[in-house]
Amino acid sequence: RKEVEQDPGPFNVPEGATVAFNCTYSNSASQSFFWYRQDCRKEPKLLMSVYSSGNEDGRFTAQLNRASQYISLLIRDSKLSDSATYLCVVLRGVYNNNDMRFGAGTRLTVKP
Amino acid sequence: EAGVVQSPRYKIIEKKQPVAFWCNPISGHNTLYWYLQNLGQGPELLIRYENEEAVDDSQLPKDRFSAERLKGVDSTLKIQPAELGDSAVYLCASSRSGTGSTEAFFGQGTRLTVV
Questions:
Q1: 3-class secondary structure per residue, chain A
Q2: B contacts of A100 (beta carbons < 8 Å)
Q3: Could you report the per-residue pLDDT of A89-109, keeping only the tens digit for each?
Q4: In this complex, do A105 and B41 lie within 8 Å of one another by their Cβ atoms?
Q5: Tens digit of pLDDT for each residue in B75-111?
């Protein structure tokens, strides 16, 4: 079993749709959580961090459930430009220990 | 501020040949990662450095892969000899540990094709 598992996708949605991605992690000692975005043939870039209380950035909402070891990303009012692969990232360890593990990614295509 | 710089961007080699990749992290970033990414998969960690020390190389295939980060700045990853299955994108990333900010910045990667 992989340490970080995501919905395999792909997700094909129309513009304006709401779409949610799920991610689970197996290492209960994991400390920090992120969603990265990766465009086709480009490098991953940080989309947003995920906080225990849940956090929102415009149309994007991230949530964390430590008890269930589950992370989610919700995208509202999808835009064509949201088409990309979304990577769930877990940071093991404590302060000063930047051990980052990635999920396989969920591919999203937003269609007109 | 310059980002993470990797070279070369593309490399095509014959199997059994050696190959080397170079990475220059963002200035001041003490953590450096090498990841391997296959098509349709997420990045998989090969090795992580904290300054010049390799703190996690458990997933580095040491029979053919080697890495170094002299002086705790730039780094090279080498494969010798390359195999067909090594064809992938090799990503370098860096982050600043110890400041509460753990965002990792990636280079554009080196796309390796072994024929």
A1: CCCEEECCCCEEEECCCCEEEEEEECCCCCCEEEEEEECCCCCCEEEEEECCCCEEECCEEEEEECCCCEEEEEECCCCHHHCEEEEEEEEECCCCCCEEEECCCEEEEEEC
A2: 33, 45, 93, 102, 104
A3: 998 865 556 788 999 999 999
A4: yes
A5: 999 999 999 999 999 999 999 876 555 789 999 999 9
